[in-house]
Every structure is written in structure tokens, then in C-alpha cells.
Amino acid sequence: MVDAALRRIVSLPTAAWLDSPVPAARFILRGAAATRAAAGQGFGLSLPETACRATTDGNRAALWLGPDEQLLLAPDGEAELIEASLARALQGHAYSLVDVSHRQVGIGLHGPRAEWLLQSQCPLPLNLRDFPAGMCTRTVFGKAEIVLWRPAEQVFRLEVWRSFATYVVELLCEIDRESVA
Amino acid sequence: MRKFSGWTLLKEAFGGQQGWTPQWRRVAPQAEYDAIIIGGGGHGLAAAYYLASEHGITRTAVLEKGWIGGGNTGRNTTIIRSNYLFDESAALYDHALKLWEDLSQVLNYNVMFSPRGVMMLAHTVHDVQVAKRHIHANRGNGVDNEWLSPEEAKAYCPPLNIERNIRYPVLGAALQRRGGTARHDAVAWGYARAADAIGVDIIENCEVTGLVRDASGAMEAVQTSRGLIRCRRVGVSAAGNTSVVLGLAGVRLPLESFPLQALVSEPVKPVVPCVVMSGSIHAYISQSDKGELVIGAGTDAYTSYTQRGALHVNSHTLSAVCELFPAFRRMRMLRNWGGIVDVTPDRSPIIARTPVPGLYVNCGWGTGGFKATPGAGHLLAWTMARDEPHPINAPFTIERFRDGHLIDEAAAAAVAH
Amino acid sequence: MLLIQCPYCGLRPELEFAYAGQAHVARPADPSATTPDQWTEFLYLRDNTRGIHAERWRHVRGCARFFNALRDTTTDQFLATYRAGESMPVLQQAGQKP
Amino acid sequence: MSGRRIQQGGRVDRSRAIRFTFDGKGYSGFAGDTLASALLANGVQVFGRSFKYHRPRGVIAAGSEEPNALVTVMRDEARCTPNLRATQVELYDGLVARSQNRWPSLDFDVQAVNDLLSPLLPSAFYYKTFMWPRAAWHKLYEPVIRRAAGLGESPTLPDPDRYSQRFAHCDVLVVGAGPAGLAAALTASASGARVMLCDEQPEFGGSLLDEPAATIDGATTADWIRDSMATLRSRANVTLLTRTTAFGYFPHNLIGLNERITEHLPAPAADMPRERLWQVRAARVLIAAGSIERPLVFPGNDRPGVMLASAARTYLHRYGVAVGQNVVLVTGSDAAYAAALDLHAAGVRVALIADVRADATGAPLDLARQAGIEVVTGATVLGTRGRLGVREVTIGVLARGTVNDTRRVKCDALLLSGGYTPSVHLFSQSRGKLEFNEARQAFLPSVSAEPESSAGSCRGIDGYTQVLNDGARVGAASALAAGYSVAAPEYRVQALEFGMHGLPGVLPQASPLQPARAFVDFQNDVTSKDLALAMREGFESVEHIKRYTTTGMATDQGKTSNMNALAFVAGELGRTIPKVGLTTFRMPYTPVTFGIFAGYDRGDLFDPVRTTSMHDWAVQQGAVFEDVGQWKRARYFPRSGEDMHAAVDRECKAVRTGVGMFDASTLGTIEVVGPDAATFLSRLYVNGFSTLAVGRSRYGILLRDDGFIYDDGVIARIAGERFHVTTTTGGAARVFGMMEDYLQTEWPDLRCWLTSTTEQWAVIAVQGPRARDVLAPLVSDVDLSAAALPHLGVTQGRICGVPMRLFRMSFTGELGYEVNVPADYGLAVWEAIHAAGQPHGITPYGTETMHVLRAEKGYIIVGQETDGTVTPDDAGLGWAIAKSKPDFVGKRSLARETMHAPDRKQLVGLLTVDPKVVLEEGAQIVATPGQHAPMKMIGHVTSSYHSAVLGRSIALALLRGGRARIGETLYVPMPGGEIAVQVTATVFYDVEGARLHG
């Protein structure tokens, strides 16, 4: 096992509506439709077939990013386990599974201001009609690319490449300085 | 042609300015011309002027589908410079710059050429390398260009922000003092008036609808919204619409037409004394004689003939301007407009014969057409008159794309490592 | 900022997309067998249509797929979008030919 | 000066007096005043000087169409805003405003001499003169003209204010909250549709605010507006934006709004943004922009005190200000009679109504006459008098070309109305088609280009009842089009109102040659004579006339002048107005602050600052950074007293003689996985990869199909179907995109997939003869021996217990490794290596040292040795091309004849004859000394450094026919003289390459 003390998560500004980033196991799975069905069995969660939707089960989630691209999220420390079980489940399939646990930072936003903060610099409509709970997609926030996932009505999770995380959070904090009125 | 001068203006003052006559005649097309230029922008009008004045081909017509100078001539940011990297480009643009220098006198029309200097900023180590390469290459070619430290750049342009703590601080600048600006509309009108005076017919509201070829395949006539006009020597100078016009003769060129936006602020008293350009954060700015800040950037992302661009492209440009000139955040955008620029794969123009005998083209100027106006017209006229290129435009052929002789000014500035 | 129908994700803002040039310009299967003119055609010659233009976009900040679109370059209105590999849709309106 | 505030009325709060200054003089106004209304109330008539002739000008309008009353407002030294319309500046306590374009003072302006010289200065006079001598334009004339031009002064200090941006989406965006817009918003929002309603004014209501006496369904307008606002505010599906201008209509129903948030506040909170940009995407746009009254054009129509009739009414009803005590109305429309009647009722003497229509008749005239106001029909205005304000107007009656009954009428305000011009700006920006309506003498919206509709007077609807009902109907229709259903209510309005029809153009005169000038465009000082001159000189296209005379190009964009200019031109040319045509309506509707476009993009938020896992460590060590794309990279690590040269020398020596460490995390990394991964890479890169063994890597060159070098990197086979591909830092995104492009569209049959892993890995290069010694104690599950892990070998194992991909590779020419660990571990591993390397003198080095070391070895940097015109062979990399492959990207282009021409620029080394001289990068090369420009340049220096290990300078260059010139002496011309150089091979150090196999 790796000494946990060696791990340094990107340090970010804090705010009441912001969760501190938590390490996670992350994979990008790419492959044909048949792969997804098999991978779902290996991951213990059927992978989303609907565009821009996530499936979740307990603390695992699978996010549809593209027709052949899924982001798998699981608690930190499960990476080796997942890699092994997916390898077993996908025996004989052509696919690509790449560990991106450290590539990106999970930024959680919660509360009634979350949507308002994001809508400032995200061009997608984020109201519940257009962006319901369960929706996820790659998009932009200011000048950064993000994966935006809304697990619940007042909860957002941004998956951001690590070198953009500071920018994204500082921009959110800058927007937060404005009064809502 | 009634001479323009302070004296004639004074004389007219006593007559209520009643004595002026049309600057160019309003004529119907004749049945036949020795030369036709399609496109009544600055380039086309200049070509017609030089065909008549330097090559004696006075039976020349300029066909313009709308009003002259209404395309990119009237829609650009009027920057003039010749500090291009490659020998071929430097020769081409400096040829134009030299013509600019006495154009007002030659045309007897004040085109307000103002060599106030063009300063190109460097923000990174790589930018500095590229700028210095330009400076050395330019000097070798006899084109003025010099390196300024950030402090010297600020002395030349006082509102420029050279603080080190900004995102992309200014590390220095390349300055071409001979570069500057001119009054865009005056260029079109000045050439039109001068060409008209020596016999050129300038025909507005005349859209070309067909290019007619004889049995041998050579140019024979031009079909227009105002009738068929016979002519065996036709030059196309139609900027963003070049592909459409040449398509009438079945000629395809490596061109794509993109929107290019520009904007001006409300007029203010003099504050920006020169032209400032930043390639790496995408903006350029100068101030017109009227006092408006004139601002532009690169093209929009997708091909379009709509003559308008996107709001986010504007935002990007103004972000850069506000970063370089933080006092201008309170300035206000007065007018925004778009042109259609035709872009070649190597971002260098084509002034050449086409595969159709008697059909010539001047195109592909991308974002750099205005500065070339006199030179492009001069070289197109030469090429049409002699059926062979001038040495300066000889490299700017269509065939260079097939043969790989690209003159790639854009790639030369690309960044990696 | 245009609004573009991604064939996978639906209507999305232009900020998520990258324009990728004329569509249906296939790379020759055997480039070495092409003549210089054929190769030049593939590399550089484009229709630059004034009117309905078949073009490629990539939903680079979305599903990341390249896809094709028919857009009127005189109005910037999209007439159709379709997946890469699909053939160009036939437009119903009279007088419109791709 | 006489006060003009009437005893009661208006919507200002008379209980709250507000102090302000104008040109240093203190005044008092009320809360709710604009600067214009407050100054008028104080009897001020001169607000500014015109652009060209510096004529004194007053306010002529009450809204955003005002052309004259431009002022600079100074909140503090850094917060000066020029060119604001006094009619839109809301009064706050302590407001400081200054007039513009005058010296030394507003009442006495030296440059007013231009007015006397006006016969010499017709439109476009500058094109005809200032040409001799040649240099004089730039040196003499232009500076004078530039100083005379311009309006206010640009701010000079950095703007400390904040600017905000938001995206928004709605079903119906209603632009304009006058009667039509309010009715539309009420109706549409009742359907449940998400409605946004914006208006440029501080208060919703539009023209209803000028109608205190009118009733809507029995309620006073004030009550109706209040109740309507309460209803709208109570609806969660409604967003209300006051002080918000819809300035631009962009494709696909995107509307740009400019919201002014703090400008009206005396002391805005520090965090409040000053203004905000809204980018609203609406399913339907409903334009209810109203219409703007036109002035009339006659000699002397620009004196202070001359004002639109509707503006006089607004000042009266909204601000309780009578614009004069003895007024004359000149009108071509019925509507303006309301202004005269209301002023009369407020106790103002209306000396005369001069109706320019010979056939004017009906209710408005009857009412005026009943009130005892004299009305003359068929009138024209021959001139006005009054130096700093109108004092007298000369009226005549025109019949069959002659003017009779000429008389002078004293007045202190002259009200004008030529009828109303519908505001079709946004509609036209949307590319909708306009059609000229003969009856209305106006262009009206015809065919839409976007999902939008117009309602109310901006589409020619006349009369409050009709306008409200039109708003309601179009509001319901817009909601329906967006998928919501609602019935439109019917409104009934009782008001004193008359038709808005009018007549644009210049009032007929007895003789065409009047000494005084009739102004069409007030701000730009364009007169009817200027327009005539343009036509005389052959400018007949309306766009030409606009550009030649500058009519309509002032900061008001011709809101009050364009129709008059057009009608005049049409009349002179003998054409109809639609035949002459309109000039283009361009974004923005009113000027928009740059700051809102920049928004949050300032400082570090201007562009993301990308840093690696080890960045903070480098900062602590005092590294100097350079920007490479968005990344910050450590350039060198100076110790105290060292300059860059000294630091780099030390760093270089450390790597050559001991060991150095370098953060290579910014290089792009792409994981290519799948059964066809090797095939894919072989088709893409010039090299072959099918034969690359697992555990081995290869230097790869990527071309575009044009044959020129696009990127390079190292490609390692991690497993049979898994490759780890690196790219340049700047190329990471574009190479990834290019790969996806080929994979998705050219070779969709290939079964392999890409994942960007640039940010997954922290990459630590450990380079130098002691590199193995440093790493050995830290790694596990790895054999570092040369036999087990030779040059270009790749393995996986652990370092500090952390999983690692270990590359044996070298961009320095020394024994070297690149340690790849998951990025969150990067700093810890870096620190561990640094600690472990202390006994070996390990030295962190930056990009500058990296550049020197690789140059000593002749390794290229894409973007420095290449510039988009360099082939592999040019760069001396022809060896990398797999000759046996039938195809790869760029191969066909390399077969072109010119790609093999012997005089192509080829990469060579250069050694200065004087070893101490370091060439300048970018310097040019000539074959023979003593040339003057233009020189025959045969190449340029791409890289140049002092080499510590060689004790001399070295350089790389691209040189025509370079490889055949090795051994020749050439020259580098510099401003200080020529530098002689010898052409050499590209490798300067360890030519045999023994060291990297150590």
C-alpha cells in the first residue's frame, strides 16, 4: 500500500457552498456498446446508455461522456480492485481502460447558490428542466473544460483536470462575491 | 479632374462649395473593354488605376455588385505594415508600403496615411524569439523593424500596461516605425476618382453572374446583371467572394472565407499614439483621427458569408485589450461589424494567372488585405497587362500549394516546446 | 454564439464546439497513387460554398465526437446535423441543393 | 439662473434633495432626477459642444437617443467615464460631472472658431487638402485634427471596478418595458413560460410614465404600473431587469444585455459589480422597443433650448421640470400637440404652434385653439436666434414655393416633432427584413430571420389601447410558440393622445441658399448642405453618403437623424425612401462598456494558470518561471547573486558532471489502447511501431498531411495493446484532436482509443551520470541496470512505494530517466529524489538548461527549429522515417519534388569564430560579408546558447543547402557588424552518443 501521506491533493480556496476535494478512483472506459454491458457487470453498476446521464449505485458512479466514453468513479483505494475486476469481465473485448484518478479533481458544490454560481460562466441551461438531477456532461466553465454532474437538485460535482482546478474554484469564488440581488 | 487642394477648397468656400462635381462618373457598361476588374474594393480600384496609368489600358471597367469600397475596404482596422517574416512576403508588403507613402500626392486625395508606428508585443520567451527573427529578417530585407524593451514600448505607447504581475506580461515589442494607418474609405474613393479621370469606367450595382469562355477555353466575356460585356482580360479581386466568382469559370482555389470582426469605441481625445498588436493574446488596437479606438483580432472559427461574428469572439478581443490597457475597461463599444476574409492554407495571398487564359486573380489576403491595397492593385495590373507576374508576386502562385512552396507566415509564429 | 444540434447530445452552445472544415473530403485510400493535382485537391481545395455547406464540427467540449452539418453560410442557420459516416441528408426545400 | 422646476408633479422624490456639481458649479436636484432633468431644473441650457464646429448644444431628448448632452462623470480619479448621456445619468449625492470638447469653458470655447470657418470645412474637406508637403499630414495636420476631434477624455488609471457576466435561458425575452412590453410580459408569464423582461430605464413603464392623466381599465397609469410590477414580481418564472439595455441580437436567438448595477448609487458596495453582461438564449424574443421622436431640420435647429416635444413632456411629467416658460412648438405630427397642451396646463406659455402640414386639422388643433394657443398650419422655420440658447424663432407660411407671413416669435424653448421612428434596431440586427410603410413613412419589421416578434409602436402600432393589446397578443403568441398556452387580455386606455404619423426630412425653404445651417446629425455636425455636397460629388449610395458626411456615425448612431437624412437624400435624388435604402443597423444599440466583455478575465483569471504538482516547490526555491501556453514552467533556479546566465551554466554543468532533475510534467501524454493501437500509431507517425517491443520506446515524429513537422515525442509500448505517447507541451491538445480526427473519421474501423493522461502523471526527469545512483535506493520492483533497462527502455515498478512508469530516456545526452508517478504523488516523490540526490549534488534545472543541453546534442525543439515549413529531412531526422511503410500521414507530400530540392533549408550547427560571441536567436545568415539591405539571406539561427561544458557558444540554424555547406565560413549580420561563423554538424557534444548509454 502507498503511504497516504505522500498524496497531495491540489489545495483550493474554501467556501460554505464548496466541498473540499476528496481523492477518488477514476477510470476512463472506452469501447463499443457490447463492452459497456460487460463492463457494467465488472463494475457492479450498469453503465449509462443514455447520452449525458449518470448511473450510480452506492458510492460508485458511471458518467456518460460520449458514445464510447464513460467516466467511472469510485472511492479512493479501489482502483486496483476495479482494474482487476474489469479486466476479468472484459476478457475478449476490445476496449481501453485508463486510470485517471490523479488527472482530475472532484469539486463539489451544494446548496441553493450552486446553480446560480455555475450559470454565470457555464453556457448550458442549468435549470432543473434542462439539466435535471442525474445529468452529466463535459462542458465549459469560463475558460476551463469541466465535466459537470448533478447528482441531486442542489448538488453539483465538477470533475476538472487538476491544473484547471484552481482557476475554476477561484472563478467561482470571484462570482460568489456578487450579491444575488 | 478638379484638383483637390487647400486653395480650391478656399475658392469653393466663397461659392458655398457648389462647384464640386462627381468624383467618378456614373456610367452604364460599354459592350466591350480591354480589361475588366471584378470587385470594386480598394484592391480592384487600384488595379484599374494602374492598368490605365502605368500600362495604358484605359478601356478598363471595374464591376462592383454593390457600392465601391463596401466590402473589406470599408470594414477593416486600417493597419499598414510590412514587417513580414519571409523574404517573399516582406518584398510584397514593402512594395505596398512604399506606394502608401506618397499615395495621397499621386492620387491627389488625402488618404491620411499616418506612419505612426506598428508595435507588436511579445509576451513569452517564444514570442521574443519570433519577434527577433522577424526583426533580423526584416532588416536584411531593408524593412525597418526594431526591438523595444517593455519600458521603451511604454514610452512609445503610454497607456500600455507593462506591469510584471499580469497574466501575460509584456516582455518587449517589435516596432516598425514606417507602419501605421490610413483612412480606408478615402483609399477606395481616391483610386476611383483617379482611375475615372483617366478613362476607367466604375460601374456600381453590377453583379457578375457568369464568366464566358471561348472555344479555346479562354476568357471571352463577362455576364452581368447589367448585360453581357465582352472582355478577354479579366481580373478577379473579390476578397471573401472570390471562390463564388471563380466558381463561375469552374476554377477552384485553396480558399476559405471567414468572418472577421472589428469594433470601435466612442471617440475620445488622443490616447493611443500608435498601432499595438498582440499576436499571442489576440488583439490589436489603434486610434482613428476621429478619436475612436479601433480594435480587432483574428477571424471567427467557421466559414461564413454573413458579415457578422460571434459575441464571444468580441469578448475575447476586449478581454485582451482590457488586460493590455486596464484604463479602457470604462471605454464603451460604439460599433461592431464584420467582413468576409478569404484565407489560404499558408495565410499568404495569391496574385496570379489562373488555369483559364485571360483570367487573373488577386485573393487570399486573409486579415491582411488593407495594408496591401496599392501593392496588390499594382501587381495585379502588371500581371494582367503582361500576362506574367511581376518578380514580386511571382512566388504567390496557385501552383505553390501543389509544389509545396508555401509561404507560411502563420506557422512561423506557432508555439510548441 | 451559435446553437448547434450535436447528433449525440442535442442542442448545445457553440462554445463547446470546434469547427473542422468541409465535410466529405475523404483522405485517399492510397495517397501514393494520387497525382500531384489529386493530392493538392485533397490537401487544400475546398468548396468554400456561399449557401448550404456540408461541414464538420467536433463537440470537443461535450461528447468529443466529430460530426457533420449542413449550414447556410449566408445566414448561419443549420439545416441538419448528422453523424460522421452517415450520408448527407437530402433537403426537402426546393431550390436548396447541398 | 431661473429655476424651471414646477410646483408639483413628476415622479421625483421632492423630499430627498441631492447635491451635485457640473463643471465645478454646485447644484441641487431630487432623487429620481437624471443629470439632464436636474440641470434643466436649474435653468442650465448649454450641456456641451458639438464635435466639429464646437457649437453650443443643449439637451434635445430625454433618453438614450440623446445626441448632444454628453458629459464625463467622475466618481474618483480612477473612475472617470467619458461620453455619458446626461439624459441617462441618474443623479446621486455628490455626483461630479463635467462637460466635454470645449476649452477653456462651455460658454466660451476657443475652437468655436471652427464654426466661423465652416464654409471652408464642408463634409470630408480633409480628403481634399493637407497633402503637401508629404510628411506634413502625419507630423503637422493630423496631430491638430486629432486633438480637435474626440469627445471626452479616456480614463488613464486602471479601472478598479468589477464587471460581471451571466448566461441565462428563457422561453420569452421581452425587450422593453413600455406599455407593449409590460402587457406582453404579464400575458406570457401568466402561461407559466419563463419570461425575462428588460428595459434600459431605471423604472419600468416606458412612455406610460409620461402619462399621469391616462387610465388603463380605469386605473391611473401609476397604479397600473405598480400593480403590474407587483404581479410580475410575484411570479417565480419572471426575471426583471431594469437599467438593462438589449444591445445586440446574435444568431440563434442569443441576445446581449448590458445591465448597469451600481452607476446610480452614491457609494456602491465594494464587491458589487459595476455592470453585467447577460447572454440570454431565448426560445422567443419579443421586441417592444418603442419608437423615437424625430426632430425637424431647418436653419438653426441646433440651438440649446431646441428639444423634442416628447422630451419636453417627459421632463414635465417624470421630473416636474418645465423646459421653458415661453415655448414654441414646431410639429409635423399630431402627437406633439399633447406636449403643448400639457405644458399649457402646467402654466407654461405656449407662444405658437407652427404645424408644418398645410392640411393639418382635427382634434389636436381644435383642443389647442380652445386652450387659447395660436396654431399656424403650412408653416416653416426660417431660422432661430440666441447665442447660448434659443431666444427667437422666425416662422413663415409656405405656399406654392414662397414664404409669406414671416414673423419672429420670442421663445425660450423650441419644441420639435417630425413624428416617430419605430425602433427596429434589434429586429434589423437579427437580419429580419424591413419594409417601408408609406402610410407611416417608416421602416417596419416584415420577415423574421430568427424566432422573434415585435409588438407595439416599434412595429408601427399607434395608440395606447392598441399598443397594450398588441403586446398582450404577441406575448401570448410568443408563449404559445415556446410551448405555453394563455389567453391575451383586452385593455382599454383613456389618454390624451394623437397619431404619431409625421414627416421626415428637411423643412422646405424659400431659397435653397440659407446662410445658417440646418443640422441633420447634431453630434457630428452634419447639415443638409453636407448631404447635398456628397450627392453633388457623386455619392449616391446611402452607405457612401453616410461615410462621406459621417451622418449617423456619432455615438447616438443616428437614432434621431437617420430617417431625416434618408428622406432628404431621397428627395434630392428624386427617389423613394425604400429605393434609397437604409444603412445597416449595427451592434450595439447603445454604447457598451468594454469591461463587461472582459468580465472576470483579469489578473490570474484572464487565462487559467496551469501548474504542475511540483510548482509550489519550485516557487519556494526561487525559480524564475516562463509562460508556455497556459503553463507556468520553471525556467531556471537562480541562487543568490546569480543571473540567468550563471544559473544556467551551473545547472548545465551539474547535469553533465553529476545529476540534475527537471519537471517534465507539462509535456502532453496520451494513452493509446486497443488491439489496433500499433497500427494506428504507425499510420500516424513517420516511424514504425508494429515492431516496437513491449518495454521499449521510440522517438516519434508527427507530420501533418502536408509533410511538415507538426509535433514530436516519445512513444513507449507499455503492453501489447497499450502505448504511452508523449507530445510537446504546446502540442498536447492539438495532437490529441488530430489523433481523434483520424481515428473517428478516416479510420473508424481501427479498434483503439485515446485517453489524455497529461495530468495523470507527474514527470520527473533525472539526468546525468549519477542519475542511476540517485534513483536506485528509491525504486522497487525495477532493475535499473543498463542491461535490464537500456536506453529507450521502459518499465513499471514503484518509487517511494508509489506506482511508477519509468522511462530510460534522455533529452540531455546523458544517462537519464523519466519518472512518471500519479500526479498527487509528484511532489513527495520529487522531494524524495531531491533528498536522495543530495550526496550526488543533485541540481534542479529549468527549461533554459534543458534547451542548452539538448542543443549541445543537436536535438530539435518543435516550434523553435521548426516553423511549419520544415520536413523531417530538413531537420536532419530523415533517419526516423520508416521507409517500408506504404503510407503515413504526410508521406505523400514528402514525395513532392520540391521536398528534396538541394537548396532547402536544412538544420546545421554554427560555431562562431569568436567562441565568446553568442549569436542572437533569429539572426540571419549570409554567405558573403559586406552586404547591404536587401541582403541575400540564406538561413537563420534557430537556437543559440553559451555551452558551459564546451566553454564556448553554440548555435543551431536552418540554412539553405546547409549540410553541403558544413565547413564553410558564413556571416551573421548584426547592427554592430558581422559575425563570422563556421557551419558544422548539429551535434556538438559526445558525438558518438556514448554517454546516454551509460
Structure overview:
The complex is a heterotetramer of chains A (181), B (417), C (98) and D (998). Chain A has 181 residues and is α+β, with helices and mostly antiparallel strands. Chain A has one domain (13-180): Probable tRNA modification gtpase trme, domain 1 (Gyrase A, domain 2), CATH 3.30.1360. Chain A is built from 4 helices and 10 strands; from the N terminus they run E-E-H-E-E-E-H-E-E-H-E-E-E-H. In chain A, strand 3 (54-57) and strand 4 form a beta hairpin. Chain A is globular and about 55 Å long. The mean pLDDT of chain A is 95. By secondary structure, chain B is an alpha/beta fold. Chain B folds into 2 domains: 27-109 and 183-254 and 346-413, FAD/NAD(P)-binding domain, CATH 3.50.50; 118-179 and 256-343, D-Amino Acid Oxidase, subunit A, domain 2 (D-Amino Acid Oxidase, Chain A, domain 2). Helices cover 28% and strands 23% of the residues of chain B. Chain B is globular. The model of chain B has no long low-confidence stretch (mean pLDDT 95). Chain C is mainly beta and 98 residues long. Chain C has one domain (3-83): Folate-binding superfamily (Folate-binding fold, 2-Layer Sandwich). Helix content of chain C is 9%, strand content 35%. Chain C is built from 1 helix and 6 strands. Chain C has one helix at 36-44; strands spanning 3-6, 10-13, 18-22, 52-58, 66-72, 77-83. With 998 residues, chain D is α+β, with helices and mostly antiparallel strands. Among the domains of chain D are: 4-116, Roll (Ubiquitin-like (UB roll)); 163-291 and 422-494, FAD/NAD(P)-binding domain (3-Layer(bba) Sandwich), CATH 3.50.50; 504-594, Arc Repressor Mutant, subunit A; 668-757 and 876-896, Aminomethyltransferase beta-barrel domains (Alpha-Beta Plaits, 2-Layer Sandwich), CATH 3.30.70. The radius of gyration of chain D is 38 Å and the shape is elongated. At the B-D interface, helix 1, helix 3, helix 5, helix 7 and helix 9 of B face strand 6, helix 3, helix 11, helix 12 and strand 32 of D.
